[in-house]
């Protein structure tokens, strides 16, 4: 299926978001998608068992995010590709953002937990998870504001 055929088959919401991102891809420095659950910071590629050429740079930045996230309350996160930490699968938006839109730093953050509660995180965990996730997001965005990278 070509990219054009794929676009034509998209749901209206997906098409609107992909058009929005593609129209601004030169300005977008980081693409993040949040998912649950597994406590992982995933780096492309997820659809195949190989890594992008700039994987190491992506990994180093993600590592800053994971360190900041873990510092909040000690939640352990794994870091790597979806293919190596989970299994190879297609359709992940971080792979699309990197491969199609060309956004270098594209990640999926798999939020807590690791299976005790699965997709139904207790209400008491929502705020702490938000706080630690926000710490990780702030840490990686500082890469661009502190270093003044274009």
TrEMBL record:
Domain Peptidase M14: start-end pairs: 1-144
GO cellular component, one term: extracellular space
Domain of life of the native organism: Eukaryota
Classification via InterPro entries: CARBOXYPEPT_ZN_2 (IPR057247), Peptidase_M14 (IPR000834)
An example Gene Ontology biological process: proteolysis
Keywords, in A-Z order: Carboxypeptidase, Hydrolase, Metal-binding, Metalloprotease, Protease, Signal, Zinc
GO MF annotation terms: metallocarboxypeptidase activity; zinc ion binding
UniProt KW Signal keyword: yes
Obligatory cofactor(s): Zn(2+)
SMART domains: Zn_pept
Active site (UniProt): 110 (proton donor/acceptor)
Recorded family membership: Belongs to the peptidase M14 family.
Record protein name field: Peptidase M14 domain-containing protein
């Amino acid at each position: 299926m070509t990219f054009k055929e794929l676009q034509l088959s998209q749901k209206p919401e997906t098409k609107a978001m992909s058009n929005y991102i593609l129209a601004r891809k030169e300005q977008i420095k980081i693409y993040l998608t949040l998912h649950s659950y597994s406590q992982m910071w995933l780096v492309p590629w997820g659809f195949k068992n190989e890594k992008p050429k700039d994987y190491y740079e992506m990994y180093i930045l993600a590592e800053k995010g994971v360190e900041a996230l873990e510092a909040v309350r000690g939640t352990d996160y794994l870091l790597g590709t979806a293919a190596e930490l989970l299994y190879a699968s297609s359709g992940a938006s971080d792979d699309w953002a990197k491969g199609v839109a060309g956004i270098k730093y594209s990640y999926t953050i798999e939020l807590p937990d690791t299976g005790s509660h699965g997709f139904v995180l207790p209400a008491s965990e929502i705020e702490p998870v938000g706080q630690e996730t926000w710490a990780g997001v702030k840490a990686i965005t500082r890469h661009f504001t502190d270093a003044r990278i274009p």
